[in-house]
């Protein structure tokens, strides 16, 4: 795993240098994916080459505490922007009662806007934190957490991310916490998806799966989210 991490760090340095940028900016959620990316960036680009942004938006306080823990543990600069009031004003302006999924996507898109404001003002590249398990099933927001310049982790399964986290000395509290978008108390990724990351990772890696219902659900998620991974269709006369 260390050799893979070294290759990923070199790839990240090359992308930043090719763009003439000063470093990267990413959202720090307190979860394992953003933690691994922050630690990778710190090793690849140094402290001044990484900016983590904590963006609470009617969020669970424990997630911000974990984000701060990670920033201090790996030694990266961080900023905090509370998006809660902006979120409420936008939802109210649109009409309110938009539904949980629409509101969660609005939060992701507000965070994307925030990250690009930091990126443009500081000459940084926006890095996405999605892993392969999420990317292939479409468990991300189009033009939200997928609205980025780079996706360094999208080739790694969730189990790879856990292994990288330990290699990069991410705090154990973050490694072992249940993956969650932090939408509400008790919400988890696996609960939303209807299967575990272990089942998903094994299916993506080998094509093998014992649970036919999980297989069907994964196949449907991949098919329905294909538009998220394709370039924007253009009509050419």
Short note summarizing the structure:
The chain has 237 residues and is α/β, with parallel strands linked by helices.
Radius of gyration, rounded? 18 Å
CATH hierarchy, class = Alpha Beta
Number of domains: 1
Task: Give the SSE string.
Answer: HEHEHEHHEHHHHHHH
CATH topology: Rossmann fold
Number of strands: 4
The percent of residues in helical segments reads 55-70%
Protein model, in words:
- By secondary structure, this protein is of the alpha/beta class.
- It has a single domain (2-178), classed as 3-Layer(aba) Sandwich (Rossmann fold), CATH 3.40.50.
- Helix content is 56%, strand content 7%.
- Strand 1 (23-27), helix 2 (32-45) and strand 2 (50-54) form a beta-alpha-beta unit.
- The longest helix has 23 residues, at 100-122.
């Amino acid at each position: 795993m260390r050799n893979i991490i070294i290759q990923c760090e070199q790839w990240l340095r090359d992308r930043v240098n090719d763009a003439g940028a000063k470093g990267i900016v990413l959202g720090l959620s307190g979860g394992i994916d953003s933690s691994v990316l922050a630690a990778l960036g710190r090793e690849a680009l140094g402290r001044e080459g990484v900016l983590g942004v904590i963006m609470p938006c009617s969020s669970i306080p424990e997630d911000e505490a974990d984000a701060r823990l990670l920033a201090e543990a790996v030694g990266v600069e961080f900023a905090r922007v509370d998006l809660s009031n902006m979120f409420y004003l936008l939802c109210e302006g649109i009409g309110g009662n938009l539904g949980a999924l629409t509101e969660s996507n609005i939060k992701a898109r507000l965070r994307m806007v925030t990250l690009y404001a930091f990126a443009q003002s500081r000459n940084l590249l926006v890095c996405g934190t999605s892993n392969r398990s999420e990317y292939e099933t479409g468990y991300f927001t189009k033009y939200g957490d997928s609205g980025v310049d780079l996706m360094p982790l999208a080739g790694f399964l969730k189990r790879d991310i856990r292994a990288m986290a330990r290699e990069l000395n991410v705090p154990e509290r973050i490694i072992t916490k249940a993956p969650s978008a932090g939408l509400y108390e008790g919400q988890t990724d696996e609960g939303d998806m209807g299967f575990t990351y272990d089942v998903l990772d094994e299916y993506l890696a080998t094509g093998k799966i014992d649970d036919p219902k999980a297989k069907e659900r994964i196949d449907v998620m991949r098919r329905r989210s294909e538009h998220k991974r394709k370039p924007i269709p253009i009509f050419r006369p």
